[in-house]
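Here comes just one.
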Amino acid sequence: MNHKLSQSQKLLHDSLFELYMQGGLELYLAGNHGLKRDLIIELETSALTPEKGEIIHFYAVNRWDEDDVFDEWARPSRPPTAEAERILGVTNEQLAHCRSTGEVQSAFLAFSMPQHHPHNRKNVNS
């Protein structure tokens, strides 16, 4: 085998091994939840147009960790339209016990912001 090719393969092997070792250590320090956090977000509104409704269902799940999830309905400031009730299968009476849209929105934003979420905090000992 050509000496240059052999040397190149060794460097590639060593680089990949070093990358694996660093990544493996980071995954180990991160625990069961790993390093990635890509949220799949679904929002439902109380009307078919933004002018008439507001967000009443906030849902997000980390595609890499199904336990990292936010799922909460909110009480709108005005009742959902008949069309929205029909499509969503939820009524104003069912939403009456929920927190307000503003409260749920604040909790949702806190959940979705990387710097505030515990899965994305750096290990202070590393």
